[in-house]
Amino acid sequence: VPYSIKISEDEVMSKFDFILSFQHDLDLNEFSCTINASVDLLNVNTVCILTQRLKTMLHQQFTSFDCTPNKPIYELSLVLPNEQYLMQSLNNTQVSFASPLTCIHHEFVYQVVKHPQKLAVELDEQSLTYAELLYYVQVLSLALLNECHVFPGEVVIGIMGIEMAGGVYCPLSPRDPQHRLYALTEQAQSHIVLIHHLTKTKFNNDIVSLDMDSILSINKLNTNMDYNCLSSVIMKSEEIAYTIFTSGSTGTPKAVQLTQQNCINSILAFVRIDALYEYDVTIQIASATFDAHILEIVGSLTCGATIVMLHPQGESVSSAFIKILMQFVAKSCRIWNFYGPAEATLGTSCQLIDVTSHMRDLPIGKPLPRYICLVLNKFLQPVMNQEGGGLLVGGLGVFAGYVGRDDLTAKALLEIDGKLFYRTGDLVTMDNNGLLHYQGRKDHQIKLHGQRIELGEIERCLLNNTSISACIVMKWNDDYLVAYVQSSHINEDQLQQHCQSHLPQHMIPSIFVILDKLPLNQNGKIDRKQLPSPDFSLSTLLSSNKSDIPFNQFEERIHTIWCQVLHADENHIAGTTSFFSVGGHSLLFIELYHHYQSVFNFDNQALSIAPFLQQPTIFQHSQLLQTVIINNVKTTQWYTLHINEGNASFAQERIFLDEQVRFSSDIAIYNELFTLQVVQGSLSLDRLSQALRYVLNKHKILRTSLIFSNDDGVLKQCITDMHRTFTITMNQIFENENELQNIIYQTTINPNLFDLSTGHVFHAEILRHQIVLDGNENNSNESIMNCDVLLIAFHHAASDRASSSIFFNDLCLAYNTNTISMEDDESLQYIDYSIHEHLIDMTTSREFWYLQLEGYNWESRLLLPVDRHRMSNDHRSSSASVTQISFDNDISQSFLDYASIHHVTPFQLGLTILYAFLFKLTHGESDLCISCLNANRYKTELHNIMGMFVSTLPYRVQLDPHWSFDELVECVQENCLSILEHSHYPLQHILANVHTDQTNISFLEAMYDFITISSHSDELSLVDSSLKQVSFEQSFEVAKFDFMLTFIYNPILENNRLAFRLTCSHDLFDEITVTEIGRRLEYCFQQLFSTNENMNRMDTCFISISKFDVILPEESQEMEDIIFCRQSHIMNEGMFR
């Protein structure tokens, strides 16, 4: 019986996933090979490549001139000829450089002679030309008599002075603990330490030091010295130019030695690819302990560029930063992605970034000139394309060894075919274009915020504490070092203090997990998989994130504002702590931003909220806000215009048009209700009426009419005096909960509740409870008794979600203080906002939205699993199919922790989940666009005004199925931040720009929102009475959209703090379908955030979103039962002819 059946010329049915068969033709004495594979697993191209690899291997074994049966099988290569050609492209050593100079200071002096008056270095208002810099370098170099390793303060002069004197430069951070400074000074075998006035206290008299301030002082110059005579020190290219420390796995940092030849060749490689040019202006941003600062300083000075120095406390570059950067620089600007360990000098490979592409996996590119890269497996054999292997680097950049550690040097260096290579320890792959892609590490070395860290060095430091018997340090996500410590008598504070006194700041763990015993595997080694997840809760992060950097006076002001907004202990928030790590969420962040606007007097045009979100720490906010002060930015204040008529706002136009076009006039869709039941005490009806009239008088939008003019086609608003005759309605009675719910629902969809044309946009009604009426017949019209319900309703054209809190705050104030109506003619009203809004220059926003939606298919529809379809000209009903899912506290906390760690808002994280879910639910639709709501109160003056400000905007993402969830989060965050700058641009203008209307746009039928419920927002206190909001039955909900997902976060609940509600139009979805969609979304959510050991949690960093599973576990089990289990009625025998 054959293993496969040939159905046709192009189709073969295979019985197994993979079949390899050899056939021997006795007549021709030939062998042939056939591979049959299941198309469920392998496509045709993959099988063809496998066949070619097999042929290549057989060719080596039986036809190659050096074939031998004793050859180890690992030497058999599967690499194809085209892949061998690509590997040859990783050898870039044939390039030659024109420069005959071999030392750093020779190149520098050459540039001085070439253009002496050109700016060499700039910092704020200070600057030095090349000639001036050479002078100070000469002064310093003549003061250095012997070879020395120096830790400079005035970095540029220091570096070049050391090189000019024939010394060896070695940088050290003044922020390191003193005992570490001594240890590194001793290890580097330093003769002299170069200091200045800020670092004098770092060393005592045991260390020989030179004070740069005194050396460079004009008044203290030695008159007997000839500073115009260049150094006569003879340097050879193989002599050491600089030494830099990297983290060591044994617990001791490794001192990497780089020669003059290493440095010059590496710099010339950058010049050769035009990444460094004499007309460049280089921003010096790398810290002194990061070898990139050598390129920025020495590289710039040896090619004739200008250096601009910056102050410390910068940020590492991310793809988000690149996107923002490209908005402000010229279109001709190029951005390079460079890769290279310190042991290979300044760089090994590079890739020019295509800023127009949507590539998120940035390759590290191809080797620089004079470098060669090899990608080998553990047997030192070349690997195939797309196969991971270890990266080895050769060429003129390979270092001269570690200071005093010949054993480590021998392990790090390897000779292949007479050439020296450095084992980087990095894992890479090579793609079909010959580009290298970084995949990770072979060992436990990591990179955190750009700094290379050997976790073993931290572990060794901890083990030096006698109270610790075992420990292990791990990197969590991209932001935290977590130390697991085995000890029975030590606490976190002691561990923190121990690390602070022995390690640099970037190597101190964020969290310490103390265990009685670390989990071990069967081999007696620590089992990393069984280590408990660290607690990223607020209290833990606060206690572990104490910064030793003091606040200045300006930062103290910002710190105080944070404490007010967060209601936090003033001693806990460090300057480097993210706002979202200390209990902040999107609503609080908006409140924080409004505080900033009020205190520092600026508006969103001067400084929007987006950069604050991107840089969410006190130190970063301080720098942003100082730009407002330095540039003397003043807000453009909006004042009342004292008008009663004017054009409607953009938001009012949208609501008015939407109500007319999308829905039947028989059903109201924009009646916004609040129902409050008296649960304690009673209310005075007269006093309540007076308080409501006060609020109506204060907020004129609640008595403003909207009238469409047929003459000029403009929607206009007009303020009326309806508040003078306003009365509370009292004509409905309910006996039980069902009757109450029915009244609420009927009021919600009542098309006659409001009349926009007359200004009747507010409604107040008392729903009487029958039992209360029976027992209080005499006082039924004077008091609102226990169990009665106060129903407050607004038309959405007059009020948004933020307006409700303003309304109830004013109502409570008026009722509790018995306030009488007062006119305030100078207060800004909503009608004033409408006029000011129309005067804003929206040119930039118009261009932004055009580009945002360029290429979008306006005819496309989300392929949701609907039960019915609706014609494009059909009016929607308000009937809804609803499901709600709540999550336990563990999952809720996991969700919030993820948002905090990745510096995203819960809104952005929820939106990312929806995108990933829709991608799977729609069978791979990658160009997704849905609507989201923006509060749009972008000026301080608008915070306390009632009205409709909310904007509905399209949030589009073009996702790559290969992205991980983390990468999708980053993309969504960037998109949300860019939209924030332009959220005031009206939807109707967005649609008009692309020449389409609002009647049949797919993204207007899919809506997302995230609601954070403020504390006690469902309760109202009026004098001695209390009212509590009546919960609304799901069956009575109104569907404004075909598909709406709302996340609800209520931090005051003891359990189920996070939930989502899926509200779909019953025109399209049955209740059971919506319930099933909800369960699938819940399952996706659990894959990301579940803490249950039985749940196969998804790796958000590496696993692509295409691996998201929307098939429920019971469905998977059912499929397995059907496919793999033999049923009793199926015959167990068969015959093949």
Automatic annotation (TrEMBL):
One of its GO terms (cellular component) is cytoplasm. The keyword Phosphoprotein applies. One of its GO terms (biological process) is secondary metabolite biosynthetic process. The keyword Phosphoprotein applies. Keywords: Phosphopantetheine, Phosphoprotein. Residues 549-629 form the Carrier domain. One of its GO terms (molecular function) is catalytic activity. It comes from the Eukaryota. InterPro entries: ACP-like_sf, AMP-bd_C, AMP-bd_C_sf, AMP-dep_synth/lig_dom, ANL_N_sf, CAT-like_dom_sf, Condensation_dom, PP-bd_ACP. PANTHER family: FATTY ACID SYNTHASE, NONRIBOSOMAL PEPTIDE SYNTHETASE. This is Carrier domain-containing protein. It comes from Adineta steineri.
